[in-house]
Structure formats: structure tokens, C-alpha cells
Amino acid sequence: QVQLVESGGGLVQAGVSLRLSCTTSGLFFNAYSMGWFRQAPGKDREFVAAIGWSGSGGTTRYADSVKGRFAISRDNAKNTVYLQMNSLKPEDTAVYYCAAKIAGEIPPTAAHEYRNWGQGTQVTVSA
Known about the structure:
127 residues, four-stranded antiparallel β-sheet, 11 strands
């Protein structure tokens, strides 16, 4: 059974950093592209960042709203993907989800491309 479990969320003030983790089980992690998405109250789920499977050389993609502030990385030995979030803003407040997709040349940004999802972790940034 495939499981994705996010952690690391919390309530923080604007300007600080957080690192989210997503630990997976039940899948061959190296063969999956991994993505982070977020959903704020009353809004659609939106793409945040993605990283390609091991064979892609770790290609990364970012939403324009987080480029230069967030960094996605993966530790294949730990079956874990991370999202380092720096200079957090109130508009980053959302539930953050990680997602997995079997290998592709370029990690997708569309949520429907991902088959497996975690339950999410809340990130709240106060002004």
C-alpha cells in the first residue's frame, strides 16, 4: 500500500523558514517524480514545486510565486522529499500536500498527473 506522510507544518511569523518533509512507503521512490501542492481556504489546489525521478537528474520546477524562496529536494535513501520554504509570506498559508507520479521526463505541474497523495500538513503564516 502506497503511503505519503507530510510533516513539518506549523504556525509561523512572516519572514521565517520552514522545512516540510514527505516520507513515502510502498513505492519504489527512485522511480517517481514528486510534487508539492497547496490549497488555501476557498481556493483551488495549486502547484508549488516538483522534482523529477532519479533518472531525470533531479529536474526541478517551481511556481512563479515561490521561485527563489522555496527549494525542493529528495533523499532517495530515506524515501523522502523535502520542501524548504524561506521568507514565508501570509499568502503562503495553505494546506501543503505531497504527491507522487511514476517516472516521466519532466516532473509535471498539473495535479491530475499525480496518482498518489498525502493527507496534507497545515502551514499558517501570520503577518
